[in-house]
Write a structure and sequence with these properties.
With 322 residues, this protein is of the alpha/beta class. The chain has helices at 12-23, 55-60, 85-106, 141-155, 184-195, 220-228, 249-259, 273-276, 288-292, 302-314, and strands spanning 4-7, 29-33, 51-54, 70-73, 109-115, 163-167, 169-171, 198-201, 214-215, 217-219, 237-241, 247-248, 266-269. The strands form four sheets. The chain has a seven-stranded parallel beta sheet, sandwiched between helices. The chain has a two-stranded parallel sheet with strand order 7-10. Strands 8-13 form a two-stranded parallel sheet. The longest helix has 22 residues, at 85-106. The mean pLDDT is 94.
Length: 322
């Protein structure tokens, strides 16, 4: 019986949570995941945890874990381009609903990953909490699957006891296995190393110049600290997890070149047609409410976080905990 369960624990943010828990002296952790054909198992190699269990075996044997103190639910299909809607809904909505209800019934602290993808194009704002929840219109089935559970939790009064976290554009170590869903920092490193230049999408929206649209890019080390903040209190609710700032793709690209001590060389290419109608041009987390819960740690700046990631992990090919 482990004190803490981390679903998706071999994945990007999940393994980073295990790493931070190890730093805090905690290794009584059950890692739950599905080890597919990717190399995400490598994220686990440097980490300390009590046991590993396949996700389907975990779901089938929930009764064995009713003394667990905290369930950090990061397990999901996170591909925003996934077309198998049934698969996404089963993994992201169905499993989350079952685990949340079970946790509330057993008195287990339940903290789950929602997403900034629930905000869609941002036309209805990016204010967290439940005030405008019904108005949100995600642009893809991934965002919708996350939004649907947020709605379910709100309508059934679960936010009195559980915490949902709307992660914005997270980047950092342990994302190598994510293929096309890797951050630009990860993709750019390989591209610059191989070609000496970086390709960015041209704008398909006349309101934005090439490279001048952007996102709230947040470092995974900040994300895990914001997540674990909620293990230290009994606050419930739905919160944004981001840097609180928007940076353009051009700014991010220059930070990557700076980290590599190279002059910027950027080439703009056409945005793929299948992305044009589901593309977020501007995201920025309002983190006022998480600050109001007592989270006081300063966010790592974009240039500091990119430099740390590139120089201490990508260049030497290391994982968190190495």
């Amino acid at each position: 019986m482990s004190k803490i369960i981390v679903t998706g624990g071999a994945g990007f943010i999940g393994s980073a949570l295990v790493w931070r828990l190890n730093q805090l002296g905690q290794s009584d952790i059950l890692v739950v995941d599905r080890l597919d054909s990717s190399d995400k198992w490598k994220n686990l190699a440097p980490l300390r945890f009590a046991d590993y269990l396949d996700a389907d075996d975990f779901i089938a044997n929930l009764a064995q874990f009713d003394k667990t103190e905290t369930l950090l639910h990061l397990g999901a299909c996170s591909a925003t381009t996934e077309r198998d809607s049934n698969f996404v809904m089963r993994n992201n909505y169905g499993f989350t609903k079952r685990l949340a209800n079970w946790s509330v019934e057993k008195g287990t602290r339940f903290i789950y990953a929602s997403s900034a993808a629930t905000y869609g194009d941002g036309a209805n704002g990016m204010e967290d909490g439940v005030l405008n929840l019904e108005k949100l219109r995600p642009l893809n089935v991934y965002g919708y699957s996350k939004h649907l559970f947020d709605l379910y939790a709100h309508r059934n009064g679960l936010f009195e006891n559980i915490v949902g976290l709307k992660y914005f554009n997270v980047f950092g170590p342990n994302e190598n296995h994510k293929d096309d869903m890797r951050s630009l920092v990860n993709k750019a490193f390989a591209q610059i190393r191989d070609t000496g230049k970086l390709q960015l999408f041209k704008s398909a929206n006349p309101a934005y110049k090439d490279g001048e649209f952007g996102r709230d890019f947040v470092y995974v080390k900040d994300v895990v600290d914001m997540t674990l903040h909620f293990t230290e209190n009994k606050i419930g609710g739905l919160f944004n997890v981001g840097s609180g700032e928007m940076h353009t793709w051009n700014e991010l690209a220059k930070a990557i070149f700076n980290a590599l001590d190279l002059p910027p060389e950027i080439e703009y290419v056409e945005m793929p047609q299948h992305l044009r109608d589901r593309y977020q041009y501007h995201t920025q987390a309002d983190i006022t409410r998480i600050r109001e819960t007592g989270y006081e740690k300063e966010m790592t700046s974009l240039h500091q976080s990119v430099a740390d990631y590139v120089q201490n992990y990508l260049v030497p090919d290391k994982f968190l905990g190495d």
